[in-house]
Specification:
CATH architecture of the largest domain: 3-Layer(aba) Sandwich
CATH class of the largest domain: Alpha Beta
Signal peptide: 1-25
Protein name: SsuA/THI5-like domain-containing protein
Largest sheet: 5 strands, mixed
Order of helices and strands: HEHHEHEHEEHEHEHHHH
Helix content: 40-55%
Number of domains: 2
CATH topology of the largest domain: D-Maltodextrin-Binding Protein, domain 2
Radius of gyration: 19 Å
Keywords: Signal
Structural class: alpha/beta
CATH superfamily of the largest domain: Periplasmic binding protein-like II
Oligomer: single chain
Amino acid sequence: MTAAGMNILLGVILLLLNLTAAADASSQSSPLRLGYLEHPGSALCLAAGSKGFFRAEGVRVRLVRFHDTERGLAALAAGGIDAGAFAVGETLRQIAEGKELRIIAGGGTARGADPLADLDEAATLEQESGGIVVAVAAPPRAPGKEVLVRLVTALIRAYQSLQKEPGGIGHGAVHFDPNPDYRRIERLWRFHDLQGEKRPRDFLANHVYEEIYCDALDRLMDRTGTKDGVLQKLFSEAVCVPDCCPPVAKKRDKNKGGSR
C-alpha cells in the first residue's frame, strides 16, 4: 500500500472511531440519572452540575438526591438511577453480598476534628468508610464507556475548579479525591473482612473500574495537563493498569499514571 493509501486508511479508521464515540455519547435518549447523598463528600457532583462541567463534556445529567446510601444503592440496582455517589463502606458490603456494582470514581471523605485520630488506623479506616465513591451497575446495564468517561472527566474538572478557589479543597473538614484508588478501597475491603476464604483473589479488582478514571484524566492531560498543577498531581498519583490509557499517556511517564 502506498503512503497516500495508508494515510487515507488511517483517516477512515480515526473517523469511524470518532463516530462510534459520538454515537455512544449521543445515544442518551434521556439524561443520565446521578444519585447523590446530602453529604459534604458529594460536592464534586454538585459542582460539576452547577458549574456546567457535565454539559461542557457533552453528557446530560440529572442529579437525584437520596437521604442514605442503602436507598440509593437499591435504586441503582433496580435501574431507578444510572450512577450513584454513595458511601464506600456500604457500597463494598453490597458488592460482597453479590450486587453487580462497579466503582468508577472517588469523592469526598469527612475528616475528624481530632488530628490525633489520624494516628489510629482503625478509626481512620472507619471514618473513610463513610467517604463517597461513584458507582454504576455492571454491563450491560451501565451507561456506555464514553458516557462514563465524560461523566468522570466532568468530576475531575469540578475538583480542579474547587481546588483552585481561595483556600482550595481537601484542607478543611472534607478531603476530596476523584481517583477511585483501588489500593485505598482494598484496605477498606480487608478492614471490613469482606474478602472471605472462598472468594477469588481478583474479586474486588473486577469491581473497581480504574480505567474510566484513567481515560478521563488522560483526556484532560491532553488538553491542558502539562500546564495545570492540579492535573499533574492527580496524574502522578494515578496507578492505571496496562493498556487502559492511550499510548500518549504512557509516553509521558511509564512509572507514573500511565501504567502499572
